[in-house]
Records
---
Amino acid sequence: MTESSAVEIEIATRRLTAALDALESAVERRRDADRDENELAARIQALGADRSRLADELDGALVKARKLERVNREISDRLDSAIVTIRSVLDTGEDG
């Protein structure tokens, strides 16, 4: 083997080593990016589940609020009726 062949082999070896290092770095970056994508997908899925749960809770709360409003109106009507009856009795008692 000649000295120029040895130099060429050394240069080729260095280029190959540099290319392998670059490939290894690229693979590591890709692995990190995939991991980040997987974590993001998991977070998005968790947020979707939370959103569904919160929407269900909100629907339940709205039903309960409507029911309470209806009961409140009924009680208000009954109180108004009772007040009218009491005033009528008091007015009748004053006349007698």
---
Amino acid sequence: MRVVLDTNQYASALLKPESNSARLIALAAEGHITLIISQDILAEIRRVLAYPKLQKLHGGPEEEIEQFIRKTEKIAIVTPGELAIDVITADCSDNIILACAVEGNADCIVSGDHHLKDLGAFQGIDILDAAAFLEILET
């Protein structure tokens, strides 16, 4: 199954190693799912994890964030990032998730963001939270 994780999933995985989000990244590392990502999403992960509030929570140096991002790049398919989508106007950064999913022929987007989850699906790509996605995988 080809999956795009929203930026909030990466932040959750780094901050909470026992979270559902961390389980998803582990599943990708083990080859049970195929992680799809774009350079735009990688840049957003860097930006979000550099927020002072999040830095305070994870307490790790910038190098730890870069290691996390390099590991993610190694286990993921990186899309060319050529597609532009403008569907979500309330939070334009969510559009990079949709574009990556379409460009990478994803089966699913996993997100905790209501702007994405409220869509339910986009161009035949289901949008689920991490718990719901893991439940599907286990059945």
---
Amino acid sequence: MSELATMSFEEAMAELERVVGQLERGDVPLEESITLYERGAQLRAHCEAKLKAAEERVEKITRGADGTPGTEPVEGL
């Protein structure tokens, strides 16, 4: 398992912000910029996957017939 797979959304976002900051400053050599860009793309994809999973969990929250909140079990949790 890669370390990226174990990162929380917040950790990945913080690293992505650092990567973007470095790229925006433009003070890194070309090869390092390419490596940073690749890392940023991986972090972005990871964050999108985490957000999608969170959205799916939220969608499982339903309202009962009487209007009271209820939940449905989420597989794998």
---
Amino acid sequence: MSYLLAFLVGGALCLLAQLVMDLTKATAAEILVGSVMLGAIAAGFGLYEPFAKFAGAGATVPLPGFGFSLVSGLIKEMPKEGWVALFSGAFKATGAGIKAALIFGIIASYVTRARA
């Protein structure tokens, strides 16, 4: 059941982004930044964590989930590191995912023989 819920919630978030792109003159980059910002703002107000617990990967994998990860890492590290957490907390929370994306992107470029 959790797979179905994740699929439906993630699909709904992607559908919403696609509708905004189709019905407005927003570019893909604006949708990307807006989605990450909405996830970060919702996380800052404590609204995204209950949503993420309810929807699982359907809420954490799409772009608003990245904003949630950034802010939740910052909030988690702030009591330990103080203001230094502004620079380190978000990177600790999202570092593994960013590294994986870079490594798999490089591997995919070699496999498909991409050219710059």
